[in-house]
Amino acid sequence: MGHNMIADPTLNLVAACAVFLGIHIFISGTRLRDVLTGRIGEGPYMGLFAVMSLAAIVWMAMAFNRASADTFTLLWVPEPWWHHAAMTAILLAAILVVLGNVTKSPTAAGSGDLVDDPDAAKGILRITRHPFLWGVQLWALAHIAMNGDLSSVLFFGTFAVLALIGPPTIDAKRARALGERWDGYAARTSNLPFGAILTGRNSLKLGEIGIVWPLVGVALYFALVYGHEWLFSVSALPVR
């Protein structure tokens, strides 16, 4: 009985992570999504899915906090230099997240028609057509590496898995909806960063990205670093 009670917080976190992943794996990007949007419409579906996702994230966060406090299990001891490497990765992640949110992309919800624009594959999209999800991937893996505990592996690992399966899922959804129109855009871009550039299907033009939005990403990074303790009760600064 005692052992089961100790395990409960971790099992609760596992359940929350499974629900969050489940609604993305088995609904978003699948043919079930196509059926649902056909019956209730794109707008109502997006609203319902957003509510479900937010509820799952809140559950995950609460479960993570409880599991971290009640059943903390250290899997490895991060080396001091890991923290600096992870913080560098998070800086890049912040820039990618900002660029992914401000760049008009055919992969964004409701923006599929952008594939018809011959200049759609520009800016950060020349590097990867999924900058936001690559930012999430870096953020999640960096937190796993520098925390080293079971709860962090489960919590941040969930986002890492979602960021990994998200691009092919989104691409498949766009391919079903847009057909040959999507094929042309996909041929000029890549999910893997620099893939299209290295294979000669696109070229790197940093001037299209500019300096303003990357600087916003840097500002976001420092805001999160120095506000981390206030927001999450844990300092993001290295222990001296």
Any overview of this molecule?
With about 240 residues, the chain is mostly helical. The protein folds into two domains: about 70 residues; about 170 residues, no CATH class. Helices cover about 70% and strands about 0% of the residues. It has ten helices and no strands. Helix 2 crosses helix 3, helix 3 runs antiparallel to helix 6 and helix 4 crosses helix 10. The longest helix has 29 residues. The model has no long low-confidence stretch (mean pLDDT about 90).
How many DSSP helices?
Answer: 10
DSSP strand count: 0
What does the overall shape look like? globular
Largest sheet: none
Quote the distance from N terminus to C terminus.
41 Å
Approximately how much helix is present in the residues? over 70%
What is the domain tally? 2
Judged by helices, strands and strand pairing, the structural class is mainly alpha
Which consecutive residue ranges, at least 5 long each, have pLDDT under 50? Answer: none
Mean pLDDT: 90
> What proportion strand?
under 5%
Specify Rg, calculated over alpha carbons. Answer: 20 Å
Keywords: Membrane, Transmembrane, Transmembrane helix
Protein name: NnrU family protein, required for expression of nitric oxide and nitrite reductases (Nir and Nor)
Domain NnrU: 13-235
Membrane topology: Multi-pass membrane protein
Which helices and strands appear, and what pairs or packs with what?
Blueprint: H1 2-25, H2 31-40, H3 42-70, H4 80-102, H5 131-147, H6 150-178, H7 180-188, H8 195-198, H9 206-209, H10 212-232
Helix pairs in contact: 1-3, 1-6, 2-3, 3-6, 4-5, 4-10, 5-6, 6-7
Protein name: NnrU family protein, required for expression of nitric oxide and nitrite reductases (Nir and Nor)
Keywords: Membrane, Transmembrane, Transmembrane helix
Transmembrane segments: 12-32, 44-62, 82-102, 132-165, 211-232
